[in-house]
Amino acid sequence: MFNQSWVRPSAAFLVWARKYPGRLLAERVDRDGSGFISVNELQQALSNGSWNPFNPETCRLMIGMFDKDKKGQITFQDFGALWKYVTDWQSCFRSFDKDNSGNIDKLELLSALQTFGYRLSMETVDNIVKKFDRGGQEKIYFDDFIQACVLLHNITSSFRQIDTDQDGIATIQYEQFINLVFSSSF
After folding, report:
1. Helix crossing, 122-132 with 106-115: angle to 10°?
2. pLDDT digit string (tens) for 6-41?
3. pTM confidence score
């Protein structure tokens, strides 16, 4: 039996999404009527499959990605793009959740990362799972999967800036590393 609770926002939210697509959906999420979607509003609109709202860090990360004005909130138009982004990740997550458990274990994550082109050791994959496993069961939920993949992408992009010959090896001074970390979008 397929557990769909992890792949969908709350039932009430989905009813609105089907009934009032586009702008009206964004207006429903915009609980304070400001005309913008905040991190808290986004978090309340999305569910990660464990009957809990999305991880606030994942919501902040996604808002930051779509917040063109850098105000910590997004427009209704940006919300449409973010919604598509989440549903695309949802499809991706489903394809790697081979046992339909609603979470990704380390072997499923390894498969996903290899498919994305990453060649990481099992030790590194274990560390990623440990970092994003909020339940202590060596598994990560949908929202944490998004965050882990986006952060890995951002970290890799930052590393590539100093790995000029793209061989996976870089020599870096401590202060350069600190600047890299604090200037990056992760």
Report:
1. 110
2. 444 556 655 655 555 555 567 778 888 888 999 998
3. 0.76
- The answer to whether the CB of 140 falls within 8 A of the CB of 109 is yes
If you search the block for the tokens 């039932």, which residue do you land on? Answer: 11
Beta strands 37-38 and 73-74, pairing class: antiparallel
Q: Identify whether the C-beta of residue 97 lies closer than 8 Å to the C-beta of residue 145.
A: no
Length of the chain: 186
The three-class DSSP label of residue 89 is helix
Q: Are strands 73-74 and 104-105 parallel, antiparallel or unpaired?
A: unpaired
Compute φ and ψ for 159, nearest 5 degrees: -60, -40
Q: Which two three-digit tokens encode residue 186?
A: 């992760």
The single residue listed with the structure tokens 């808002």 is 63
Rounded Cα gap, residues 80 and 82, in angstroms: 5
Cβ proximity of 96 and 109 under 8 Å? yes
